[in-house]
Amino acid sequence: MATLNITYDGMSADVPVELERPMTDDDVRRIATELVRSGGVPGMHLSGLSHDAFHSFVVDRFRGPRGEDRIYLRPKVPFGAR
User: Fold this and answer.
1) In this predicted structure, what is the pLDDT of residue 19?
2) DSSP state of 56
3) How confident is the model at residue 50 (pLDDT cuts 50, 70, 90)?
4) 17, 19, 25, 30: CA torsion to nearest 10
5) Which residues contact 2 (CB under 8 A, 6 or more apart)?
6) 37: helix, coil or strand?
7) For all residues of the chain together, what is the average pLDDT?
């Protein structure tokens, strides 16, 4: 289990994700797109989100203080700007 943090259009939210195998950056972007489209991300339901909305976003991976996996999907610019 990992926590995926998605930052988009000035919003940011955490969502737990099951990791059955190592995920590539493209996997993270694809999963995030489907989660946001389906309403699976608290406060971030955008059913019309384009399939390439996260194409140029950066994927960062960190280990939390208790050893938990944290994955951040964010724009290349700070503060969620487009």
Assistant:
1) 81
2) T
3) very high
4) -50
5) 16, 17, 19, 68, 69, 70, 71
6) helix
7) 89
Its sign, for the CA torsion 23, 26, 27, 32, is positive
Nearest to 45 by CA among 8, 16, 20, 71: 8
52, two tokens: 């390439």
Pick the more confident residue, 1 or 26: 26
d(CA 67, CA 70): 9
Per DSSP, the three-state class of 42 is coil
The yes-or-no verdict on residue 81 having pLDDT over 80 is no
- Interatomic CA distance for residues 65 and 68, integer angstroms: 7
